[in-house]
Design a protein that fits this description.
Oligomer: heterodimer
Shape of chain B: globular
Order of helices and strands of chain B: HHHHHHHHHHHHHHHH
Strand order of the largest sheet of chain A: 1-14-13-17-15-16
Helix content of chain B: 55-70%
Distance between the termini of chain B: 61 Å
CATH topology of one domain in chain A: Rossmann fold
Strand content of chain A: 15-25%
Distance between the termini of chain A: 57 Å
CATH class of one domain in chain A: Alpha Beta
Number of domains of chain B: 2
Radius of gyration of chain A: 22 Å
Largest interface: A-B, 69 and 44 residues
Number of helices of chain A: 14
Number of strands of chain A: 17
Structural class of chain B: mainly alpha
Largest sheet of chain A: 6 strands, mixed
Structural class of chain A: alpha/beta
CATH architecture of one domain in chain A: 3-Layer(aba) Sandwich
Chain lengths: 446, 343
């Protein structure tokens, strides 16, 4: 068997996955109303394709792709378009979205799988199908998947890595997908590997999911999956970060400012592989996803299959969340997730989890930096976060840039270990914002 | 849809939303706990005097910080981070048992007042406050600071056959004198090593027992509060340099050379300094690379002072001097960026 692999740096937060890791995926009943934003991905927003009052079916395109780095948005219910207007978006600002009233008929448009077996299809046909199905990276970054599958001709991709690390504490959505949709997501991996023309297909899973490792290992014995191999990784945060995953699985280092394709790798999340399978083999576009709902104020923690556009409020109500005790709601995991004040914002394609917290902010009392260096040891990309925070605090943005502030991926490892409880990520984010603003101003002058 | 518009009570903040439970006070507390074995050893060898000296030092360190923070800076008290108590203990550990108590009190005031608070308190001081206090006392009252009494067990330099001329000298002073007056071969320095390990020799109250210090350091290594990089390079460099430049024999494979090197690392303040003073987080470099440079620098300086300097001991000045170049070390020991593209 393979030895366990990992990367340099990182932290070991408590896994906190017990509440939901053994809870099977449950389908959340479709809500009365969904709100589907036109931007649920990185890149150009989708272009609206329906009108107010129009009847729509499940899987019908509500908005067309807005460019190459863009995907269409599909309806997740059947019913009537109530309005097209500004609605709260889980990433912050209000944004144009389509509000649909559910008629509870669940009428779906005729699904159209690929017209031939995927093994015989050309890469272009598969990429087209993935694009038209609205698939984006479901791990959190929501980068359109078809773009990752279309590298420039000078970048030869030899390795596909399926990210099953799920290194964020509390989250178990990917874990459950691996257990319950094993053949499906592995088939998705095969499709992705074939599309890329990669000769190595790696399924990478952390060793805190022994049941998932055992099941995938067993399933991979089947000759139809012989093109894939399983890699066991040590449980460490942020093992699921693209660069850390590539380091662990291939020993390659993505250049600073570069992309995985620069070292011949493409990383796709487990959920994305499943979505690819469903798009290509059953013709189902991406209109629902698995969301982990957990936290100390959740009465019934669950892994829910949620229609995209379902207001967060509905999901929380279903799981019996005690909002009077909830001080904070986090979208995603506790390390990188966004605190969300707006319960009417919808679940979107990148919503991997809803986590409640009874604390306003952990470690409210902060101290001066004592230069312990734990942040530098924890940083997976070898920055010195305490120094960056000091530079930003003193408005020394050029120094922060010189010390590679822009390479920070905001994984939060530094702030997690900081004994002085300094909000290092906050300072670095602020610094990046100012540096980018300065750069922009400079390029305008030229 | 009739939505109840209860005011949102949800808070917003930057990620991460969970934190490790280690805090500045918890680190300070563990260092204090790690010093308890040495404290017990000091009471064993120097009696009640070391309790009184330690209490006076802590009291004046804590009081100085409290007065400065509350009355000069008019800010909430910072005593709850325990760093003032730690400074008090470390200062006392660097004082001879018979030092007049008012000197210990003065040392505490200088350590906190000038060594720490003048620069903005914990985290902003660039020299180790306890060592600042010690250096002040050593420069101001050199006689009192270098007069050592024998242990309660009657040992002063740990040697089996004390010679009149060096009978009141600590092990390091005895060694230096023996080289100067050519009595090295007549003395059995090997016999002193067990006494150096247990602490049955004259010296500052907290520095004599190497075993007690190592037990304490093991706690900190286990809790990952201190690493090995500074301590190991510091002690290693001192050992290596005294092994090669032992001043007695050019044959480094001879037992004399090894005895001298071993004697040097276990005597004086080296163990206390390398384990607990040089590893002070605030005044040491941030990265492992920087810490190795720092440790080597401390080792070389300690060797130079012990070998060529006027004092038999050089640990505290070595660490203080290296403290001063920490910002420079930090600047030039930048870790290699992940994915750095070589130009």
């Amino acid at each position: 068997m393979f030895g366990k692999v990992s990367f340099k740096g990182g932290v070991h937060p408590p896994h906190s996955k017990k509440q939901t890791e053994t809870v099977a995926i449950e389908t959340l009943p479709a809500p009365e109303k969904v709100i589907i934003p036109l931007s649920m991905h990185i890149g150009a927003p989708s272009k609206i394709a329906v009108k107010r009052g129009e009847s729509v079916k499940i899987g019908q395109i509500l908005a067309e792709s807005g460019g190459f780095v863009s995907v269409p948005a599909h309806s997740s219910v059947s019913g009537k378009v109530l309005s097209i207007g500004n609605f709260p978006h889980p990433l912050g600002q209000n944004i144009t979205a389509v509000e649909i009233e559910n008629d509870n008929q669940d009428d779906a448009v005729a699904t159209e799988p690929l017209d031939k077996d995927w093994r015989e299809a050309a890469p272009g046909e598969i990429i087209q199908k993935i694009n038209s199905s609205g698939i984006v990276g479901l791990g959190g970054a929501s980068f359109p998947t078809h773009v990752k599958l279309s590298p420039p001709s000078d970048k030869k991709i030899d390795t596909l890595i399926i990210n099953g690390a799920e290194c964020e504490p509390f989250l178990t959505a990917d874990h459950r997908v691996i257990l319950e949709k094993t053949e499906e997501f592995l088939t998705g991996a095969l499709i992705l590997k074939k599309t890329l023309g990669a000769n190595d297909g790696i399924i990478a899973i952390e060793d805190n999911k022994p049941d998932a490792l055992a099941l995938v290992n067993k399933t991979l014995q089947d000759s139809k999956f012989s093109a894939l191999r399983l890699v066991t990784m040590h449980t460490k945060y942020p093992q699921g970060g693209e660069k850390q995953l590539i380091s662990a699985a291939t020993k390659r280092e993505v250049p600073s400012g570069g992309l995985p394709m620069d070292v011949g790798c493409v990383v796709q999340n487990v959920g994305t592989a499943l979505a690819v399978y469903e798009a290509v083999c059953t013709g189902t576009p991406l209109y629902q996803r698995v969301v982990t709902v957990t936290g100390p104020t959740v009465a019934k923690p669950a892994n829910l299959l949620v229609r995209i556009g379902t207001p967060i409020r509905n999901v929380l109500e279903h799981c019996g969340v005690d909002l009077t005790k909830t001080k904070k709601l986090i979208i995603g995991g506790p390390m990188m997730g966004l605190a969300q004040p707006e319960l009417d914002a919808p679940v979107i394609k990148s919503t991997s989890g809803l986590l409640t917290s009874m604390e306003i902010h952990p470690g409210v009392k902060s101290y001066n930096c004592i230069s312990c260096g734990k942040c530098a040891t924890a940083c997976p990309i070898n920055l010195v976060p305490s120094l960056l925070a000091r530079y930003v605090e003193k408005d020394l943005y050029e120094d922060a840039l010189d010390w590679n502030a822009l390479d920070c991926m905001e994984c939060g490892s530094c702030a997690y270990v900081c004994p002085s409880k300094i909000n290092l990520v906050h300072f670095i984010k602020l610094g990046k914002y100012h540096i980018n603003a300065i750069k922009k101003a400079a390029s305008k002058k030229e | 849809m009739a939505e109840e518009t209860a005011p949102s009570m949800l808070h917003v903040s930057t990620s991460p939303h969970i934190r490790h439970n280690e805090t500045v006070p918890s680190i300070m507390l563990f260092v204090i706990i790690a010093l308890v074995p040495s404290f017990i050893a000091s009471v064993w060898f120097f009696g009640i005097r070391s309790i009184i000296l330690t209490l006076v030092s802590i009291l004046f360190c804590v009081a100085t910080e409290w007065v400065i923070v509350r009355f000069l800076l008019k800010k909430p008290s910072t005593l709850s981070d325990y760093s003032a108590i730690l400074t008090g203990i470390l200062l006392a550990f660097n004082l001879p048992p018979d030092l007049p108590l008012w000197m210990a009190a003065l040392g505490g005031v200088v350590a906190i007042g000038i060594g720490k608070m003048a620069f903005g308190g914990l985290g902003n001081n660039f020299i180790n406050p306890a060592l600042a206090g010690r250096a002040f006392l050593l420069a101001s009252y050199p006689a009192a600071m270098t007069t050592f009494c024998p242990t309660r067990q009657g040992s002063i330099n740990g040697l089996a056959q004390p010679i009149d001329a060096i009978s009141q000298a600590t092990p390091l002073a005895a060694f230096k004198e023996s080289l100067a007056n050519g009595t090295f071969q007549a003395l059995d320095f090997q016999a002193a090593i067990p006494n150096l390990l247990t602490g049955n020799v004259g010296g500052c109250i907290g520095e004599t027992s190497a075993i007690a210090l190592l037990i304490g350091a093991a706690i900190l290594w286990y809790k990952r509060i201190i690493g090995f990089s500074i301590t190991m390079t510091y002690i290693g460099v001192v050992f290596l340099l005294f092994w090669i430049f032992n001043g007695v024999t050019s044959d480094i494979l001879s037992s004399d050379a090894l005895i001298i090197a071993t004697f040097q690392i276990f005597s004086g303040g080296l163990m206390l300094g390398a384990l607990f003073m040089a590893t002070d987080m605030v005044t040491s470099p941030i990265t492992t690379k920087g810490r190795i440079i720092f440790g080597i620098g401390c080792g070389v300086l300690t060797f130079l002072i012990r070998k060529f300097g006027g004092y038999p001991e050089g640990v505290s000045y070595s660490i203080l001097l290296m403290n001063l170049v920490v910002p420079l070390i930090d600047r030039y020991s930048r870790p290699r960026l992940y994915g750095k593209v070589s130009a």
